[in-house]
Amino acid sequence: MFYRPEDGHGLPHNPFNAIVTPRPIGWISTRGADGHDNLAPYSFFNAVAYVPPQVMFASTGAKPDRSGTKDSVEQIRETGVFCVNVVEYAMKDAMNQTSGAWERDIDEFALAGIDKAECETIPCARVANAPASLECKLTQIVQLPGAANFVVFGEVTGVHMRDDCLKDGTFDVLSFSPLARMGYKDYTVVRDKFALARPGE
Predict the structure, then answer these.
(1) Considering the domain 23-182 in this protein, what is its CATH number?
(2) Percent of the chain, pLDDT > 70?
(3) What per-residue string of b and e applies to 135-165 under the rule 16 or more CB within 10 Å gives b?
(4) What is the pTM of this model?
């Protein structure tokens, strides 16, 4: 099968996000200028540079109570900071609860019963018990073609790692079973790994 996106795919559901899979989930916490905390998951998320460490996430929708975007992007515009929290399998239901299009004054931490802690380098909350959290300062927001498509880039200014996830000096991802997004309503869990040496190593 071949299709041009501009012509449509003719399938019951859009296959695009099932093709680009699995995708790590950035559970983005933000704080607005008014002090209100927000927490929402984004599966268009990844690390993009080592030195300095940088990450990105993309927001592809809008809420009627925001100016053409979602709460996360709007609050980052206001304060210039955000935190990326890693999602473990055990927190899948709480993560899913925070994915709703809740009104802007709803604190998703409280809504989903998630313990919050203060970040160290930025004025923002984080998921207290997450396997890892990356405190970030905004570097740029890029508007992409299409309605409400924005990519947020940030430089990591602080890194939290849960003590039980550190094994023999490494951050052991299998110790907490990272959750990843597949297509449609599907998710997967990382429970296996293998190593490959690059040519010449």
Answers:
(1) 2.30.110.10
(2) 100
(3) bbbbeeeeeeeeebbbbbbbebbeebebeeb
(4) 0.95
